[in-house]
Structure formats: C-alpha cells, structure tokens
Design a protein that fits this description.
It is built from 4 helices and no strands. With 81 residues, the protein is mainly alpha-helical. The chain is globular.
Length: 81
C-alpha cells in the first residue's frame, strides 16, 4: 500500500477517535499528537498547538512507531521522560 494512502487511513482513524466524546482525555490528546505528526508537523509545532512539552510529542511519536497505533489507547501509561 502506498505510504500516502496509509497516512490518509491513519489520519481518518485518528479523526474518528478524536470526535468520539466518550474517550479518555489522554487518549484524545495522544490521538491529536499522532495525527499532527502524521500530517508532517514538527514536535515543536505540535507541542505549541496542543500546549504540551515537545518531549511528550517525541515520546508518543516514538511509541507509535515502535508499538503501533493501538498504544495510544493504553490508559495509565506514564508520559514521564
């Protein structure tokens, strides 16, 4: 599957997660971080837009790359760096 189609599928899935009102806030924030990363934004830009530390953005970018998108749903996961 071409990379662009995969990125589009990923952002569509993340958009669905973000719009669901019943998901935990931390999951929604992670989904927003990963969605912006998939769109090509830098860690610094994402951190500014979402009012989080750039290391938090880098952490979730790294976790999703290593463990897949499902890790975004792991409630209770520490974001300490």
């Amino acid at each position: 599957m071409p990379r662009r189609n995969l990125s589009l599928q990923l952002t569509n899935e993340l958009d669905r997660w973000i719009k669901v009102g019943s998901i935990p806030q931390q999951v929604a924030l992670r989904a927003r971080i990963v969605r912006q990363a998939a769109e090509g934004a830098s860690d610094k830009q994402i951190a500014h837009w979402l009012s989080v530390h750039p290391r938090t953005v880098a952490l979730w970018r790294q976790r999703v790359r290593a463990d897949g998108i499902g890790c975004v749903w792991e409630v209770g996961v520490s974001t300490k760096y």
